[in-house]
Amino acid sequence: MTSFFEKAVRFMAIAVLAFEMPVPIYWLTLHGWVSFWRRHIRAAFPVVVLAAWGIVDGLLYRFRQELFRPHRMSWLAPVGMALIAFDVFTFATSEAVLGGRRIVGHSELADSRELIARGLYAHVRHPRYLGMMSGVFGAWLIVGGPIIGTTLWAPSMVWLVLVLLMIRAEERELHTRLGSAYAAYAERVPALLPFRLPSRMRHSSSPREHRP
């Protein structure tokens, strides 16, 4: 029989998945039709939130028996908990730097031209998304147990593709809205990891016009 602690950890992991997995749908919908939502700001947040969390959390609930089978906690659980803790840290620090309105997309809808590059954003352009990926991966380690099969990894791979599409869409929107200021920022600060891999292209190219 699983202990109260194990049940609590599993519940925490499922809550992380329910909160984080809809995020790519939210931002893809917001960025994909940003001009439309700017004309309908009052409707934007409730409609997009209901669509994203309704669809994804509905699917998680529909397949709950396949995805969240009870099992004895393994050595992977502490690793998963540490990854979730990193997610919480990046969310809290990002919210402290950006503010609640900006972190949910108000600056996109208001067409704000302010570039924030302090705190974690001085080191990576998307710390919130790095933390989100860490949290989801950690939650899968907890709910998946010692043997992670295709039942868990198939939806997570689809989700990862959506995350990469979301980041690309957000980069395009930021380049369009902030122009040369964001291009210079993107040249200076990596997207997700606080370092850049060596690239001959970076050394051979001149200070350049940055394309989205």
Beta-strand content: under 5%
Question: What is the CATH class designation?
Answer: Mainly Alpha
What is the count of structural domains?
1
Spans with pLDDT under 50 lasting ≥5 residues? 200-212
Q: How would you characterize the largest beta sheet?
A: none
- Using the alpha-carbon principal axes, give the shape: globular
Task: Describe the 3D structure.
With 212 residues, this protein is an all-alpha fold. The protein contains twelve helices and no strands. α9 (127-144) runs antiparallel to α10 (150-178). The relative contact order is 0.14.
SSE blueprint:
Layout: H1 4-20, H2 23-32, H3 34-39, H4 41-62, H5 64-67, H6 76-98, H7 100-103, H8 106-110, H9 127-144, H10 150-178, H11 180-188, H12 200-204
Helix pairs in contact: 1-9, 2-4, 2-10, 6-9, 9-10
Based on the model shown, name its key terms.
globular, Four Helix Bundle (Hemerythrin (Met), subunit A), disordered C terminus, 212 residues, single chain, 12 helices, mainly alpha, 0% strand
Task: Please sum up the structure shown.
With 212 residues, the protein is mostly helical. The chain has twelve helices and no strands. Helices cover 72% and strands 0% of the residues.
